[in-house]
Amino acid sequence: MHKIPVGVLGASGYAGRELLALLNQHPHFEIAFAAANSRRGESVDVGSGRTGRRLTFVGIDDAPLSSAALVFSALPHGASAPWVARSRTVGARVVDLSSDFRPGNAMPRLEPLLAAALDASAPYGLTEDTRPSLGGAGIVANPGCYPTAVLLGLRPLARRGLIDPDGTIVVNAASGASGAGNNPRPDLMFGEITENYRPYGIGNEHRHLAEMRATLAGWGARSDMVFTPHLLPVTRGILATMIVPLTEELPDPASLWHSDYAAESFVVVSGEAPSLRDVVHTNTARIAVRPVAHTRRPAVQVMAAIDNLVKGAAGQAVQNANVLFELDETSGLPS
Amino acid sequence: MHKIPVGVLGASGYAGRELLALLNQHPHFEIAFAAANSRRGESVDVGSGRTGRRLTFVGIDDAPLSSAALVFSALPHGASAPWVARSRTVGARVVDLSSDFRPGNAMPRLEPLLAAALDASAPYGLTEDTRPSLGGAGIVANPGCYPTAVLLGLRPLARRGLIDPDGTIVVNAASGASGAGNNPRPDLMFGEITENYRPYGIGNEHRHLAEMRATLAGWGARSDMVFTPHLLPVTRGILATMIVPLTEELPDPASLWHSDYAAESFVVVSGEAPSLRDVVHTNTARIAVRPVAHTRRPAVQVMAAIDNLVKGAAGQAVQNANVLFELDETSGLPS
Amino acid sequence: MHKIPVGVLGASGYAGRELLALLNQHPHFEIAFAAANSRRGESVDVGSGRTGRRLTFVGIDDAPLSSAALVFSALPHGASAPWVARSRTVGARVVDLSSDFRPGNAMPRLEPLLAAALDASAPYGLTEDTRPSLGGAGIVANPGCYPTAVLLGLRPLARRGLIDPDGTIVVNAASGASGAGNNPRPDLMFGEITENYRPYGIGNEHRHLAEMRATLAGWGARSDMVFTPHLLPVTRGILATMIVPLTEELPDPASLWHSDYAAESFVVVSGEAPSLRDVVHTNTARIAVRPVAHTRRPAVQVMAAIDNLVKGAAGQAVQNANVLFELDETSGLPS
Amino acid sequence: MHKIPVGVLGASGYAGRELLALLNQHPHFEIAFAAANSRRGESVDVGSGRTGRRLTFVGIDDAPLSSAALVFSALPHGASAPWVARSRTVGARVVDLSSDFRPGNAMPRLEPLLAAALDASAPYGLTEDTRPSLGGAGIVANPGCYPTAVLLGLRPLARRGLIDPDGTIVVNAASGASGAGNNPRPDLMFGEITENYRPYGIGNEHRHLAEMRATLAGWGARSDMVFTPHLLPVTRGILATMIVPLTEELPDPASLWHSDYAAESFVVVSGEAPSLRDVVHTNTARIAVRPVAHTRRPAVQVMAAIDNLVKGAAGQAVQNANVLFELDETSGLPS
Q: Which residues of D make CB contacts under 8 Å with A?
C-alpha cells in the first residue's frame, strides 16, 4: 500500500521536530518535505536505528506543497495562515498547529487571493470533542497545549451544564521549558530555569485564555475563568489543576469522566493524582477528579496532565490527521 | 557582651540544620546543644571558614535543656509538645517549629505534670502579624511553610474585610523537595523527582489547611478556601498563587500590600511576578499583586514566594527569637 | 508461533523493571513470572496502552522456575548464584545480571548440590565480543554497566595489541543516579544529587575494575588501568572518557572502530563527542575516537556512552537472550 | 576610612555580575562604575536588603576609568587587552579576568600607544602560588576556571619534581553551564542541558591547556598532559579528577598538600572526595588526594573542586585585589 505524502512547515521547532519523529514511524504517512527557514539546507537525523532517516530542511518558499496530500503547519502564530491558504490552493489538506484558526483568536489579515482560498470554517481539533466534524475538513485548527489539558478536564462538566455560572473556574497550570520553543532566549538558558519556578502571563492575560473561554462558551459554560501558567524546571509536560464551582453537589463526580472517556484511546481517568512522568513521550491525557472537602459550596478538583509536545501539539495533530484520512486513530502514536 | 545560649531539638532534619547554620552566625545567640536521636554521637560541620564549627549531636534525652535560655524544637508533630513542656519546666523559652501549638491544630495529649508546665497560650509566630504579642511569650508557635507564604499574601485583604465571604479563595502552591524532610523515602529519590511535577494532598485535605483557615477566621475572613500543594523538582522554595474573590473592585490593589509591609525588613512587594530564585537562601517573602482581567466578578491574583527552610521554618524561628529577646529583628538573618 | 516463556528474578529494581518493560514488548518472549521479595503480592503496570499489562510480583521462593525456558536474574551480587543454580536444576537457561559469574569476580560459595548444578563455565555476555561462545551456553554472565561502556570502547585497540603495556589506561566515567539502584538511601535523595557532582570509589577501588582488567587481560592487554566513577545529577546514562597510551602513532585511529563495529546493530561510531541524550532509552553504545594532540607519546581519546539500564543491563541481557535462542539479535530492543 | 574606588568592565556576564555582588559587600572597595555595552543604560539590583544597591550600566566607552584606583576587566578574550592598557594609561591598576595576559596565551596585538602603556609583565594571579609577586603589580592576569582547580591540585607535586616526566598527567574535568557564559546559545538552553552530560574540546584541544602547561613548565613539570572538559547539568562548579604519574612511591601523599596549604584560607585538603555542593558560592578550593591502588607504576589521584564563578573567576580576582592593596586577603570573600 502506498503511504500518504505529508509535509511539515516550521519543522525545526520543538513541535516540528516531534512531528517529524512521529511521522517517520507512522505506518501510513511518509514525509514529503520538511521546511524551516532558519535551518534551510541543514540535515537532521529523524529516528534512529533501522527506522532512522536523514532529512534535509528546505526553505519555506521552496516547500513543494503540491507534493503533499496533507500539510502540517507548525509556523508561528500570524505567519501560518498565509501558508495554510497556499497549501489549500494546491489541494492539500492542512492541520494547523498555530493559533490562527483557533476559536477566540482573530484570523490574520490575508491578501484577497489567499483569503479566497481558505475554507469557510476550520473545525477545532480537540479530537475527543470534535471528531465528527473533522471528517471532511480542509483545515483543522489544532488546539494549544494548555487548552488541550484544561478543556479535556472541564468538558464532562461543561457539556452537562454543571459548572456554576456565578462562580469562577480557577486554573493553575505549569509547563516544561519546551513550551516556550527552542529559539535561544536569555530567560530560557539552563541557569535561569534549573532550581527555579515562576508564574507568567499574570493578571489573567495569557493568550490561551481566549481559546479556552470560546470553547467553553460553545459548550454553554460562561463562568468566569482565571488562568495562571507557570514555568517548570523540566523539559516536557503540562499539568493543570482546576477548581471548578458546581451547580450542585455531585455524589460521584469521577463517574462523569469515566463515562465520557471510556471509549477513548488517549484519555486515562484515574483515582490517583497524575504526574508529568506518567504522560511524557505519550499522546495520553491523564485526568483525576476529586470532590473538594471543607467547603460550603460544591466544587470539584480536576487535574489533567499531558505531554505538551505530543498530546499538546504534534501527537494530537497526527491524531487529527488520522481522523482526516479515516485511519485508525491511534496509528503511529505512543500511548 | 555575653551571647544568649540556645539549644536545638531535632537538629538533624533540614529545618534543624538550617537553624544550626543561622544560629552559628548569629551575633547574639550561641549554640548550647544540638540534639537529634537519629544521629546521636555524630559530628557535623556548621558553617565554614573562620566562622565554621564542628558540633556533636546529643540524644534528645541527654539534651541539657537547663543550659539554654531558649530552645528551638524542630521535632516532629506530636513528638514536640512534651519536649516543649520539659523545656518550660526548666525555665527555657521555646520557639516550636512543629504544628503542635499552631491554630487549627489539636494539641497532643500530655501527661498531667507536663501539661501543667505549659503556658496558657502560645502565640502564633507569623512575625509580621503577631509581633506585639510575642514579647513576653514563653512559647511561640512557628508557622508552617505553606501558611507563611499564603497568610502573608492574604493578610492585607483579610484584615480589611475585603475578601468576598461568598466566594472561594483558591490557592495553588508548589514546594521544593526539602519540604518533605530528609528521611529517605522511595518517592523522594532523585529519579522520582527530577523532570517530574505532581499535586499531593488532593481533595483539599492537606494538613496545613486548618492552620490557614483558623488564622484567616481570626482575621474575620471565613470564605471557602481550596488549597492544592504540588511537588517541584527543586531543592528549596515555595511559591503560592492565590486567586482571591473581592467584596468590591479595588482601584489600586497593590497599594494595600505596599502600605502594610512598608516597614517590614523581610517582605518585598513588587510589580513583577516572584520566582523561587529571588528568595531562596533568604528570609524574605516576595509578594506580587495583580487585578484579574477578563472576569465579571472582582478578584485579585496574589503570588507569594519564600524559602521554605528559611522564612518558612528556621529563618522565621530566628526572627521570632530576635523579637522574644528584644534584639534587632534582622539579627543573623539573610535578606 | 508460541512465545518463549521467560522469568525475572529481582524484578522490582531498576534493571528488573527495565527488563519487564522490554520483555513485555518482545515479539518472541513472554513473561512467565516476575519475582521480587520486597514487593511480593504487589501489582505493577508494565507498558501502557494496548500493549500494557498488569503483573503481580511473586516472592522469589514462589517463582515457578520450571515454567520458564529462560530466567533473567537481576538479584543482588552474592544472592544471585544460588538461584542461577536452582534455575539450571530445572533446566532453564539463565542470563545473570549480577557480578557472580563475571570475569575477575569470585563466585559465591554454594552448597554442594547447588554447586553441582552449575555449568563448567558461564561465558561473558559482552555480546559484540563473545557472541560466538553464547550459542549453547547454559548461563551467560551479563556485563556490568561501566564495563560495557569501557570495554566496547577499548576492544579495537586491545584486540590488536595496540595499548602500550608500560602505559596507564585512564578511565573517567560518570553515571546517572539509577546506577545506584532504587533502594532509598540518604545520599540518593533529590536534594543530595541535584546541582551536585562527585567522584566515588576513589583510589582505584571500584568493584568493576576487576571485571574490566580480567577482560582486558583475556584480550592480551595488561597495562595499568585507573578507573574513577562519578555520580551525575541525571537519571540515566553512563559516559566514559578514556585516555589510552598506544604502542605506536595511528594514522587514522577511528577506522579501527568503524571496521570492528561496522556490522553491529547496537554500536555507533561517530566523529562527534557522544552525549547521554544520544543514547538514553536505547540499547546503543555511541563511541567517538580522537587522536590526542599536544603530547609526545602517542595516545588516543575514546569516549563511549550508553544507557546504564539498557545496554548496560536489561537491554544487553535481552540481546544475549536473543542470541541464546537464535532470534534476530535486535528483537524487542530500541536503537 | 575611605573605601577604594573600583570599576568593572564587562559587568553583565556571569563573572561580572559575581564581581559586582562581591564588591558590593566588600568592606574596603566600593563600585565606581559598572560597564557593559550590551546592557548600557539598564539598571540592576546588586545584593539585597540593607546592603542592596541599584546600579546602572554604562557603555564601555563611557566608563570613567580615571575614577577608579583599580579596574577589573571581565571583557572577552582579545577585547580585554586594549582596555587594560587604557586603564593603565590613567593610572589604575588592573585585575584582568580574560586570558590576554595569562601564561601560554599570545597577547593580542595593540596599537603602539596602547602597547606602550602596558607593564613589562603581568604576574599570574594564582594567589596561593604567586602571592609574593603581586604586591607591586600594575596588572594581574587572573587564572582561568579550569586552570585554577587543576593547578592548585598539581602544585605540591610539580613544585617538588615528583611528577614522572615520562608519564602522562590525565585530567578529566566537568563544569556547570555558567562556565559557558550567559549569552543565549541553542546548546545552552535548559532542554539541551538537563538530563544530559557530554565532553567538549575533545582531542586535547581546549584553550585552557596552554595556560596549564605553561604554568606547570614554570614549575619544572614537563610531562605530557591530556585535558578533557565536560558539560554538567548544574549551574555552578568545577570538579577536576587528575591521575598523576609519580617519579617514586609516596608513603603519605596527602601530607604534601596538607603541608603546602596549611596556612591558606581558601584551600581545604580533605580525606573525602570533594563534591560541587561543598564549594559552590564559596571562594574555597577543596582538594582530596589518594594513592592509586592496583597498578604497577606509582600514581596518585588528585581531585579538586571549586566554584567556577568564585574561586575560578570573580572571587580569586577579589582575592588578588586584596593582595594588591595589602588588605586582609579574605576581605569580602565567602569561605
A: 14, 176-178, 182, 184-186, 188-195, 233-235
As given in the structure block, the three cell numbers for residue D306 are 571549586
Residue B151 corresponds to which amino acid? L
* Residue B24 in domain: yes
Q: How far is CA C104 from CA A232, C151, C209, C268, D296, in A?
A: 46, 14, 8, 28, 18
Regarding whether B105 and B166 lie in a shared domain, the answer is no
pLDDT tens readout for residues D204-252 = 999 999 999 999 999 999 999 999 999 999 999 999 999 999 999 999 9
Can you give the residue range of the structural domain that contains D68?
4-122
Domains identified in chain B, total number: 2
- The pLDDT tens digits for B33-47 are 999 999 999 998 887
Q: Identify the pLDDT of residue C49.
A: 62
Chains that touch D (3 or more CB pairs under 8 A): A, B, C
Catalytic residues of A: 145
DSSP-derived 3-state class of residue B94: strand
Q: Specify whether C104 is located in the same domain as C175.
A: no
**Would A288 be classed as within a structural domain?**
yes
> Is residue D325 annotated as a catalytic residue, yes or no?
no
Chain C residues lying within 8 Å of A282, measured CB to CB: 48-49
Q: For residue A49, what is the nearest residue in chain C, using CA coordinates?
A: C335
Q: Cα–Cα distance between C175 and C307 in angstroms, integer?
A: 9
Question: C151 and C298: one domain?
Answer: yes
Torsion of CA A310, A314, A315, A317, to 10 degrees: 150
Residue of C nearest to A51 (CA): C335
Residue D49 and residue B195: Cβ atoms within 8 Å?
A: no
Q: How far is B290 from chain A (nearest CA, A)?
A: 5
Question: B10 and B79, same structural domain?
Answer: yes
Strand spans (E) along chain D: 4-9, 29-35, 43-46, 53-56, 70-73, 93-96, 139-141, 168-175, 198-199, 224-231, 238-245, 267-270, 285-291, 299-306
Say yes or no: D160 and D303 in one domain.
yes
User: Which residues in B lie closer than 8 A to residue D282 (C-beta atoms)?
Assistant: 48-49
> Do residues A80 and A151 both lie within one domain?
no
Residue B39 falls within a domain, yes or no? yes
Predicted model pTM: 0.95
Residue A275 lies in a domain: yes
Q: Would you state the pLDDT for residue D1?
A: 60
- To the nearest whole Å, the CA of B300 is away from the closest chain C CA by 34
Q: Which chains touch B (3 or more CB pairs under 8 A)?
A: A, C, D
**In this structure, are C96 and C227 located in the same domain?**
no
Indicate whether C47 and C11 sit together in one domain. yes
Element (H, E) at C296: none
Residues A108-150 pLDDT 10s: 999 999 999 998 889 999 999 999 999 889 999 999 999 999 9
Whichever domain contains A235, its CATH number is 3.30.360.10
